[in-house]
Amino acid sequence: MDVTLLAIESSCDETSAAVLQDGVILSNFIAGQKVHEQYGGVVPELASRAHQQNIIPVVDAALKQAGVHKSALRAVAFTQAPGLIGSLLVGTCFAKSLALGLGIPLIAVHHLQAHVLANCIAEPRPAFPFLCLTVSGGHTQIVLVEDYLNMKVIGQTLDDAAGEAFDKTAKILGLPYPGGPVVDKLARSGDPRRFSFPEPQIKGLDFSFSGLKTAILYFVQEQMENDVNFVQDNLADICASVQHRIVSILMRKLKKATEETGIKEVCIAGGVSANSGLRKALAEYGEKNNWRYYIPDFQYCTDNAGMIAYTAWQKYQKGEFSDLSVSPAARAPFAQRTA
Ligand code: KG4
Ligand code: ZN
After folding, report:
1. Rounded to an integer, what is the distance from CA 323 to the centroid of its chain?
2. What is the pLDDT of residues 295-337, one digit of tens each?
3. DSSP structure string for 193-220
4. pTM score, two decimals?
5. Rounded to an integer, what distance in angstroms lies between the CA atom of residue 16 and that of residue 217?
6. Please, which residues bridge with residue 143 across strands?
7. CA separation for the pair 20, 6 (Å, rounded)
8. Which of 278, 302, 331 to mutate to test the pocket of ligand 1 (most atoms within 8 A of CB)?
9. Which ligand neighbours the alpha carbon of 162 most closely?
10. CA distances from 261 to 131, 145, 146, 265, 284 (A)
11. Closest ligand 1 atom number to CA of residue 170
C-alpha cells in the first residue's frame, strides 16, 4: 500500500508534526514551548497561543524534512483526546482545514493509545498480547494490549500521575519545570538509599502518588528547619531517593500485572519512560523474571506526532476515519473495538 500520512500532536505543550509512509516515519518534528518555564508548569491559555504560532511552521518543517509535498498526502491525523482542550482545538481545527482543503480523510487519534503504540514503531516490536506501563505528566496506567486498536486499562493512578510526582518534587526542591529530566540527571550522582520515602499500600493494580508528594514536602520542611542548606547540600541524594521510590512503586505494580495476566511481554511508554532509573529497573526486573521488555526510542517517549502517525496508520488500514463533525475532548477512554 503506497500511503503517506501527516499527523499532528498538540495535546499539551509540544507542537509536533510527523510524516509517515507505509508504516515508516519519515519525519517527527517537535517544537517545545519555553513560555511555561517561568510559571513552573503549563499555563493552558499560553499553550494554545503558542500552538497557534507554531503549527504552520512545524507542519511545514515536517513535510520538508520528509521530502513530501502536501499533494502526496492520503490522510491527516490529529490527537483528538485527552489533553488541554484549547491546545487540542488548535491541532483539530488545523487538521480539519487541511483535510478539507486537500479532499482527504481525517483520522482522530487517542493520545494514550498512541503512547502505547510508540513501542511498535521500530524493531524489536512486542508481540500481542502485551502489557504497557504508560507513565506521563497526566497519566499513569497499566494497559493490556490485545491488538493495535484493542487495548484496555487494567490499573491506573487514583490521584497524581508519576510525571506529576517528578514535577512536584522538583518544585519543592526549587528546580525548574519540567522536573522529571532534571531530577533524573541529578539522581545519577546521588545515593538512592540515603533517604527512605513511604510506599503507598493501594489494592490491585492501581497507583497513588499524592501521599508521596506530601511526605517529600514535610520531609524537606522539617530538615530545612534545622539546616537551611539541607536541600542544596543533599540535592543529588534527595533526587535519587525520590526517583528510587517512584520507580519501585511503578515496577511492583507492573510485576503484579504480569503475574495476574501471565503476560511476559512488557513495554513502557510516555514521558517518564525516558527516565534512566525506570529504564534500568525494567531491564533488571525483565532479566530476573524472564520478561521480553521494550522501551521506545527517546524521541517517541515524550509527546510527539510520530506515535500519532503510527496509530493513524493502523486506523487507516482498518478504514477508521472521522468526519468533519469530530471534536476534541479533554478526557476520553480508549475506544474499544468489538470486532
Ligand atoms: O508524555 P509526556 O511528554 O506528556 C504528557 O502526555 O503528559 O510526559 C511529560 C512528563 C513530565 O511530567 C516530565 O517531567 C516527565 O514526563 N519526564 C520525565 C523524564 N522526561 C520527561 N520524568 C522522569 N525522568 C525523565 N527523564
Ligand atoms: Zn503524552
Report:
1. 27
2. 999 999 999 999 999 999 999 999 999 999 999 999 998 876 6
3. TSS--PPP---TT-B--HHHHHHHHHHH
4. 0.95
5. 35
6. 132, 153
7. 7
8. 302
9. 1
10. 9, 11, 12, 11, 20
11. 14
